[in-house]
Amino acid sequence: MSALPKTMRAVVYRGAKDLRVETLPVPRIGASELLVKVAACGVCPTDIKKIEYGTVPPPRVFGHETAGTIVRVGARVRGFRAGERVALHHHVPCLDCHFCRHHAFAQCATYKRTGITAGFEPAGGGYAEYVRVLPFALPGVVKIPAKNSFEEGAMLEPVNTVLKAVRRLALQRGDVVLVAGQGPIGLMFTRLLQLEGAQVLATDLLNSRLKLARKFGARFTQNASRAKLSTHNSQLSTLVSRVTKHRGLDAAIIAVPSDAVALEAQSLLRGGGQLMLFAHTKRGDAFTLDPASVCVDEKDLLGSYSADFTLQREVARLVFSRKLDVRPLITHRFPLEKTADAIALASRPTEDSLKIVVSQD
Fold this sequence. Notes:
The chain is an alpha/beta fold. The chain contains twelve helices and 16 strands. Strands 3, 4, 5, 6, 7, 8, 15 and 16 form an eight-stranded mixed β-sheet that branches. Strands 11-10-9-12-13-14 form a six-stranded parallel β-sheet, sandwiched between helices. The radius of gyration is 21 Å and the shape is globular.
């Protein structure tokens, strides 16, 4: 067993918009735990919000879309060995509580605990050189095939969240689905919906993203221009009317945190259609929705948050087979010391930026 360093570099959250590269002890593991050397960690909007707005008390080490190499295996751990390349899931449900029996895994008390840490209060830990995998998170460890990269492994968790949302929709082959926003998440939706047999209508403010959306399987695209909403609504409603033969959208997925876009999409649904909110994660906001559209028109309002543990194997097959090829989504890589710059770019994306990864490979 090779010797490990006693200390490591980690990016520590010390308060709102305050990230510092510090020296921490390499985590010590228990008999039922793993120690993983981090190779890649994606930047996720949920961590960005915590860092930008200081919504949780410091200190913490964030980063939960993590992949790396096992370097220590606890004496009681079976099925893993040092040297294996793995992707990690920081939330794993108990599968036995009332919420889990109702398939509401993200509401499970065990799931709400974070099972990966680099020190301090567990918060993912991927912005560090090493992370400790706690016992209840071991079922979330996925081995990465030799042909695939650490970055592909790091994308399993976000892909899972998207597939979970897709599976919450009552779709049939040929249904027309709007995906509003073609950032990394929206593009994943576009491809997964296309694989499910849906006809995707993709919208975004950037033509470069719409071009990529077509490569990811969008049947129709429209630039959501910065014109007044009434103008955009006229343009989009005309397109929806044409492609659905005046019926209306079967579903709409809102992958941008915009109330106006959500309301517009809801108005374009057919009776019995479904509106999926995916990006509305900030609490305290409110918008006015005509309740009769839900009651009389039977338009479902749905939300989806975080991952579905039962989809883990299917997600791995999709990503590792490259049926959903996540590699084109990764546009920028930053070293660990530049994590703050990675967060800054991800929070204010440019025309050429999509998925941002902190890489140590």
